[in-house]
Write a structure and sequence with these properties.
Elements: H1 3-12, H2 20-35, H3 45-57, H4 61-81, H5 85-88, H6 101-112, H7 116-122
Helix pairs in contact: 2-3, 2-6, 3-4
Length: about 130
């Protein structure tokens, strides 16, 4: 099990869905943010993440986008219902504008093993 798979499973628990595309989206977001050092506003989910993951799996981008969005929603629901938002995002009630945004919050956790808001307090130049 990869680090990103362990992260997702720690949030949603055991499920029968294929979580690999969602995990790859988290890993790719971390790569773009921290290795390529692209600002968040320049990263487009459809083009830069969903499209790349779809190509890796030889699937249509729309199919992979739906799959990733379902997992994003499931993660958001699990974080809220299980009271894990502070543990994984760093704030009890953050403003999350779209389900795809959770990919970036989890990318921070994936990269630093600490929640987004905790990382940003220590290193303000890393904010989304």
């Amino acid at each position: 099990m990869t680090k990103s798979e362990a992260l997702v499973r720690s949030i949603v628990g055991p499920i029968r869905w294929d979580i690999r595309p969602f995990c790859q989206a988290i890993e790719l977001a971390a790569h773009l943010l921290f290795e390529e050092q692209l600002p968040r506003e320049e990263i487009l989910l459809i083009r830069d993440i969903y499209g790349v993951v779809a190509a890796y799996h030889s699937k249509q981008p729309a199919t992979v986008a739906k799959q990733i969005e379902r997992l994003s929603n499931l993660c958001l629901d699990a974080l809220e219902s299980r009271g894990l938002m502070a543990q994984y995002v760093g704030a009890p009630n953050p403003i999350i504008r779209s389900s795809g945004e959770i990919i970036f919050y989890l990318a921070y956790f994936y990269q630093f093993d600490r929640p987004y808001y905790e990382v940003v307090r220590a290193q303000p130049d890393l904010s989304l």
